[in-house]
Design brief:
- By secondary structure, the protein is of the alpha/beta class.
- The chain has 1 helix and 6 strands; from the N terminus they run H-E-E-E-E-E-E.
- A hairpin with a 7-residue loop joins strand 3 and strand 4.
- The radius of gyration is 14 Å and the shape is globular.
């Protein structure tokens, strides 16, 4: 069983506005079988670079894993 749809729904639910949003992932392995999509916006920083409007934050580097699986 993959968590692709649940992760995408969490990203979609948290998205919106011009503030950076964070989706927190407790330790565990999250199996995905498709691309996760994030919305972007143009910032007004001096470089003019685009920055993501969403971040995924794991509980720990070694304990939170997003693993791609075959369809």
């Amino acid at each position: 069983t993959t968590t692709t749809q649940k992760l995408q729904q969490a990203i979609n639910d948290a998205a919106g506005g011009y503030k950076v949003r964070t989706v927190y992932l407790p330790n565990g392995t999250y199996y995905v079988n498709n691309t996760l999509y994030f919305k972007y916006w143009s910032t007004s920083n001096p470089s003019g670079a685009e920055e993501p409007s969403m971040t995924l934050q794991g509980q720990s580097r070694a304990g939170t894993v997003i693993q791609l699986v075959d369809n």
